Every structure is written in C-alpha cells, then in structure tokens.
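Deliverable D4.2, example record:
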Amino acid sequence: MNTTSTRKRVDSSFDDFLAEEGRLAETEAVALKRVIAFQIAEELTRSGLSKTELAARMDTSRSAVDRLLDPENHAVTLRTLERAAQVLGKRLRLELV
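Output generated by the structure prediction step:
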C-alpha cells in the first residue's frame, strides 16, 4: 500500500471521504431529518401536545405526523415542516451554506 495515499486518507476529514464517495449530500440529508424529527418530538413533549392534537392543529392526518417524526422518512415537505413549526410556536429556518 502506498504510504502517501494512506496518509492522505488519514489526514482528510470524514466529510471529504463522503464527498469522494459521492455520499456527502445524502448523509447530511439523513442527519438533518433525524435532528428535525428529534426537535419536533422534544417540542411535542415540552408542549404536552399529543400526536393526534398536533395533527388536528396542522390540519393533517396522524399518519402524516408519524411520517414527520420518523427519522428514516425523508419525504417530508417544507409545507409540513412549516405547519408543525407554527403549531409548536417555532420558526423553520433553512439556509444554503
């Protein structure tokens, strides 16, 4: 094994590795959805709202709330996120970096 290529791999960041593998964007999206699902679940607990109450206030179904809270479900719309944030007294903030 070439020491130079090994050193390059060890010296580079995990983000660099994921970028080289073409998986950085996907990995970041998965992590972001997990964080958002966790934050919404925490706010539900803090507010004392049930999933059924959240669904009613969002004017959606309980299954839509379950999808929203599922960290593995990545097909959540911005509108759904906005409605959940509004009901929970929060703002949704997205940014490109």
